[in-house]
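User: As part of a screening pipeline, I want to sanity-check one entry by hand. Below is the sequence and the SMILES for adenosine-5'-triphosphate. Please return the complex as structure tokens so I can compare it with the automated output.
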Amino acid sequence: MNSGLDFGTSTTLVASPSGIVPIGESRAWMPSLVGYDEDGNTLVGENAQDLTPEQLIRSIKRFITEGKQFVQLDTPTGLRDVRVDDLIAEMLREVARRAPILTSTNVMMGCPAMWDGTQRRRLVQAASRAGLNTTLASLVDEPVAAGIAWLAANPGTGPVRVLVFDMGGGTLDVAVLDVTGDDHYDVAVLAALGVAEAGNALDEAIAEDLEFGLAAMGIDVAYLPRPRRARARLLYAAQEAKIALSTETEIDAKLPRRDFGIASIPYSRERLNRAFADQMDRAELFVAAALRVAAVPSGSGKSARDIARIPVEDLAADVDVVVLSGGMSQIPYVSERLREIFPAHIRIVQATSAPENAVATGLPKVSAYGRTSKYRPAFDIVLEWDEGRQTRRVYEAYTPLIEPRQILQGSADLHFIRTGRDLSLPDSGKGTLRVISHALPVQASLGGADLDGFRVALSQQGFALSLYPDGRIRLTDGAAEYHGQLAGWS
Ligand SMILES: Nc1ncnc2c1ncn2[C@@H]1O[C@H](COP(=O)(O)OP(=O)(O)OP(=O)(O)O)[C@@H](O)[C@H]1O
Ligand SMILES: [Mg+2]
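Assistant: Here is the complex for your manual check:
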């Protein structure tokens, strides 16, 4: 059996195939908080809530996204650089304690679509240290898991193209999925893009807005007795206001009178929308970029310039349903803005009735679906020679085959390429290509033979391997040019 673990920037959730397994003290989710108390004990989740800002890390997952190894924390022996991965392992250990299902099942874990192989391996290693049974193959792009949560709840949908918009605390993930088949669905990922701007960023924008509001009332936060603490409180008030304004149109944002001298400040949905507008403008560009990336494989014959010129409305018309996931997608302004891109006949639906549960809900179900990532294939292509003593990674799993900016720049021929010069290959001898899959087995041909085991004439000048988003492969080596195809791609 599979279970699901959604280690989110703000919240962590666990699910079994039949639904969410509550792990929080008062809610289904555990806040993704970790820190040290005065005695040097690690505190996790709700237990860490009351630590001082110096003792606490609020969004530990963000450090993997940013590629940081250490974080500064106040410990009993003073300020210390603590290893991020140790804190994550500590947190996941606590999650496993709260959800025994995780230690008796295969744990499928979500990760942001934008993570590369190195980032994915960090999470898998931390999870293994926490005693969880996970491998790279058990990591699923978060928007794919959310899309599958929706599919599982809507069987018999038939072939559809789904755009998943997953806005959580730390990242916005957008994926375009092609769903084929009738009773057994295959889900192909045509695009999976991510950007580290989501709920936390909006909280900061609202907090800034509240600070302006206070200034207009004659309260200057910089001159309060404890400005740092006041700003931390303001951020908290901002988050509360944001959540309340998903259902109300006007509220009084609560403030601790002790810190501010007043107990609340009025805030409205209209002001929130204004504070959110720039961020949603960027999100909209991002959705457009994902739609363009998704248009590449089927648009064969079209140049990047052609694809860059297709009006967004035309690209949007290829989508059948927009699936919303992540806590932030409960903000009415999110669907209002998406509605401006997607015409009225395209459904905009929530992945699950509580969209913050979607990723976790989908994770234990992914194994029932065929999955291929055509945008960030889950295999390495390695070139080895000298009886395996020399190796080069020609293609690293999860590297995007094309970048959105290549489309915008009108690059002549959209594909991934690695040359003999990039790889510092020698100029003589023979090498062998190896395909190492991190998910389902990969079938690929090259020059009529298998790509795995293909013999290559080594050459610094002559070698180049190209992978195309429609699954075509081209290799030139010191001797000839070969063409091939990844099976099941077109
Ligand atoms: N009802 C609501 N209205 C508006 N925002 C909400 C609501 N509920 C939660 N949020 C916000 O959603 C974000 C958390 O969403 P979610 O739990 O999906 O993120 P996450 O999975 O922890 O983060 P990520 O996926 O980015 O790693 C937070 O910014 C939170 O304040
Ligand atoms: Mg999430």
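Points to compare against the pipeline: The chain has 13 helices and 29 strands. The chain has four domains: 2-140, 142-197+285-373, 199-273, 379-486.
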